[in-house]
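A.,

Following up on our hallway conversation. Structure tokens first:
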């Protein structure tokens, strides 16, 4: 049986005024074979909880934002936790779908923002979201659920994420290509970095021969940390070494990969990228995605490695 990918989706909104809407969104996501991550799991929100929320955002595949007419509880900097979640999701390159209540003038008074300063922040937040993210509008919880389902399916098909699969399905059909290591590779010449690369080590852990075709590099956000080639080059195990200011042993095109074989590829780094920044982006999987086409048993497959 083929493995079905399950996507984790972070649901961000205020809570008390949107209980019904949140329930409908979670139900819609479960019907789409997604795993919703929401504030019901977090308990009371404080600085320690915020660090936990950030980890959930890093590890999720997609984010859904729902806004009605309440700004929500704020942190010391005056921003609501909902706005902080949205800003951080965009900062780390997560795809965000936003849904805004279109008839906010018809909302019951006890579910509206009555604090003048928070009202101003709410309006500014809505303007920011409309300028930066795909936005749909809703009037009722059921209407919201329909909009979420339609918009999410389109996003999933146009921007497929990593997701995860059941462990028993993973054992039935393991992926043969694994990442053994990722590290910085550099050569310094006086005060100038001649070449610096993020090197990726891949291994065929399956029991079948593979043919790796030219890979592609995709950035998640307008990341200035990398300046990659349009097609990645492969380096067989044991090759390499600096010769005339270039790396020897590189091979383009399709490369055979027997069981147990190791290949290397790399992403060229921008000279201005600091090592600590590159490592930080890699730890949060914000550098980009290596898209590898491979042939196995006469069929083509695609492997996406988020770095």
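Then the amino acids I'd put at each of the 307 positions:
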């Amino acid at each position: 049986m083929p493995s079905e990918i399950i996507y984790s989706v972070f649901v961000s909104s205020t809570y008390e005024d949107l209980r019904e809407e949140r329930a409908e969104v979670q139900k819609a996501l479960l019907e789409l074979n997604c795993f919703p991550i929401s504030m019901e799991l977090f308990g009371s929100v404080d600085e320690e909880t915020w660090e936990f929320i950030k980890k959930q955002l890093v590890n999720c595949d997609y984010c859904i934002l729902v806004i009605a007419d309440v700004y929500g509880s704020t942190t010391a900097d005056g921003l609501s936790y909902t706005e902080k979640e949205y800003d951080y999701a965009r900062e780390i390159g997560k795809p965000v779908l936003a849904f805004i209540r279109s008839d906010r003038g018809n909302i019951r008074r006890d579910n509206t923002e009555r604090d003048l300063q928070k009202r101003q922040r709410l309006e500014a937040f809505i303007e920011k979201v409309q300028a930066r993210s795909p936005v749909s509008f809703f009037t009722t919880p059921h209407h919201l659920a329909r909009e979420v389902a339609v918009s999410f399916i389109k996003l999933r098909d146009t921007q497929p994420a990593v997701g995860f699969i059941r462990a028993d399905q993973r054992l039935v059909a393991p992926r043969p290509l694994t990442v053994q290591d990722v590290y910085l590779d550099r050569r310094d010449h006086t005060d100038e970095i001649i070449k610096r690369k993020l090197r990726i080590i891949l291994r065929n852990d399956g029991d079948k021969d593979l043919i790796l075709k030219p890979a592609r590099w995709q950035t998640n956000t307008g990341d200035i940390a990398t300046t990659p080639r349009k097609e990645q080059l492969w380096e067989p195990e044991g090759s390499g070494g600096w010769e005339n200011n270039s790396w020897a042993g590189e091979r383009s095109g399709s490369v055979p990969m027997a069981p147990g074989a190791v290949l290397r590829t790399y992403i060229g780094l921008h000279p201005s990228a600091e090592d600590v920044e590159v490592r930080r982006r890699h730890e949060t999987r914000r550098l980009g995605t290596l898209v590898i086409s491979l042939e196995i048993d006469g069929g083509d497959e695609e492997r996406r490695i988020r770095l």
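The CA atoms of residues 72 and 235 lie 53 Å apart. Curious whether your intuition agrees with the design.

B.
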